[in-house]
Amino acid sequence: MNLDIPDGKDPIQYAWGELVPGIGPAASNLSLAVYAHTTLGLREFEAARLRIAQINGCVFCLDWRTERDGRKVEDEFADAVAEWRTTGRFDDRTRLAAEYAERYALDHHGLDEEFWERMTAHYTQREIVELSMCIGSWLAFGRLNHVLGLDAMCVLPKP
Question: Ranges for the Carboxymuconolactone decarboxylase-like domain (predicted)?
């Protein structure tokens, strides 16, 4: 579906702000907070974010690379995320972040004791909650933008 955007309106600002003024700015604040306040390392953050982008098919999210202190992941990183099970480019935390993102999106009922044992061996409870909130944000908002045809112009409004 593509929303009917009035001429001269920014599609994202219109959809996220004008159409739903009681919800859109709050959603935007959550989306922005995930980037501004994360304590996760760049590689695990991007592994989870990109895996959700791959699952959602969000055009903007697939092209976006998070930058921290002038650093981004290498160009081949997205390909490695798609092959998280077999790539030799990831440490345990990065591989688990990609796995968790995929399972969170596609098989959250299948997160069993074996998975949680591996996850808690590498992540604190605080990090798991933070990663879960990040994944939830990307899953919801990347999917929303893709489903509504906004993802080619995805620039979230500043609150």
Answer: 28-102
